[in-house]
Amino acid sequence: MTGIDLSRRSLLPLAVGFWATTSASASPPTQPRAPWWKNSVFYEIYPRSFQDGNSDGIGDFIGMKDRLEYLAELGVDAIWVAACFDSPNVDNGYDVRDYRKIMPDFGTMENFDAFLARAKQLGIRVILDMVFNHTSDQHRWFIASRSSRNNRYRDFYHWHDGKNGAPPTNWQTQFGGSAWTLDEKTGQYYLHSFEAQQPDLNWENPEVRAELYAILKFWADKGVDGFRFDAITFIAKPEKLYDLTPEEIPARKTFADHGDRLSFYLKDMYEHVFKNTDLYSVGENWGVSRDEYARITDSRNKELSSGFRFDFQIKDNVDAWRKGTFHLSDLRAFNRDNSFDDHPGTWPVVWLEDHDYSRSVSRYGSQRPEYRDRSAKLLATMMLSLRGTPFIYQGQEIGMTNFPFKSIDQFDDVFAHNEWRLQVESGHISSQEMLVNLAATTRDNTRTPMQWNDGPNAGFSVVKPWMLVNPNFRTINCSAESSDPRSVLSFYKAMIRTRKQFPVLIHGTYKDVSPDDPQIYAYIREDSTNRVLIALNFSDDEKTLPLPEGKTVKRIIASNMDRTQIQSSSMHMQPWESVVVIL
Ligand code: GLC
Ligand code: CA
């Protein structure tokens, strides 16, 4: 055990701020050689919605720079900036037109450089989002590629002849509809895993890979610390075209190849860009099995440092739009699976929110207003006490909730509008049913402007923001929470500190000690110094958790209810109570 005992005051105002600044390079004593990203807490910024710095209603790098002190105080070590390059914004920046240019909405390269320099001064690292499965259809490579069948860029993308007047295969996009679009001019179809304006790159072509690596080097030379790879598990396509079975289509089975070709490309990229650097690479590892994930992220295989998995996130989000029920058993099973104790070479990512899912407190927390904050803190306790690198999404640290969507025109997301067309306008689903479901699941929920204060537009912008502000900003906002030692924000700060103070919470082994309980979730993290029990009551009821046999609590290191002692051999827990104790 190291450091000062904060057990009595870990959630009191005194502690807040005291440990607030962090140094990205400080590694805990027990793991001197762990790469920096293992000991880091990340924070995802969705630039469009974070902070407007030039009063046009859109978030930008000037705004991001101005808010870096806030992030330093929160205690995060690194930032993932979501898609921020020049783009026609069919998919909010995930359709890149120029990989070496900042999206004009977000500012200039000078604005970016100033942001990066300030982040470095504060000891905060920065990784950028690389959308390399596809480009925009406005990218110069695609414009050239579609111009004629023998253009030198033709082979940068996947072009095929149709089959009897129909697309080459029955493959579907992730957003719904055929994955092939006919280009009238040259009479062939091109492949796209997402929208038609997002044509997939042909990674089989070494020239494509060389171009992409050069882009990575360009940003690495500027001083960024790594990359998040968008849709990276889609980059490899089957060697031969084939049709999916009629059952596989509604199940949204991917046609992407998760085997050898994917590994080949990732190893190639590693060799050319990541070797002998301490750059971090984290994949959006959508749709791969646990074994495939372990292979892709095993440090000995030299592919990716780590990756996001989705097996849990999709459980209560059926077909990407229908609201399913959250079961604690799914979360428990996923966390056990995702701890990768059996794969020492694999280092997972821990996350509950990103820009593609709705708000975690609305999904997994209490629906009763009196327990909202407490359940948000419980989720923080869990996220920051699991093995892996935690990624907090902007606004999660103040307990932002879903938006009360009431009509389809309030949605911005291309996916929501596509589903509306496919399901409602075609008469499959009533508009009411679709709205209720979309409101609960839409990724627009995490794209509403950041709630900084209770002033106009929540302090996000002095003019009308590009996206609706959640009406609860008057009570849920950073400014109010900063001065409240019992706020969700203060709890996040304390919990991040606790994680750093007790490396067992980062590196220890993981053992579930509540296998069948539908309401209490408890697990033990252990290393050679400490055995820590994390107990979480995921319910509106009081519950009792027996302590593991023969064990008593030595010390409480985090509590979302200011608990200072546990005397008996069982723990009586309040609704949504969370506690972290040393046994
Ligand atoms: C990823 C991004 C998402 C985007 C998609 C296509 O899933 O996170 O926002 O729509 O890729 O690039
Ligand atoms: Ca702006």
From TrEMBL:
GO BP, sorted A to Z: oligosaccharide catabolic process
Glycosyl hydrolase family 13 catalytic domain span: 44-447
Xref: InterPro entries: GH, GH13_cat_dom, Glyco_hydro_b, O16G_dom_2, SusG-like_C
Transmembrane segments: none
One example GO MF annotation: alpha-amylase activity
Signal sequence extent: 1-26
Gene3D superfamilies: Glycosidases, Golgi alpha-mannosidase II, Oligo-1,6-glucosidase, Domain 2
Keyword list, A-Z: Glycosidase, Hydrolase, Signal
Family annotation (Pfam families): Alpha-amylase, SusG_C
The keyword Zinc is annotated on this UniProt entry: no
Highest taxon, organism lineage: Bacteria
Annotated family: Belongs to the glycosyl hydrolase 13 family.
Name of protein: Oligo-1,6-glucosidase
Organism from which the protein derives: Acetobacter malorum
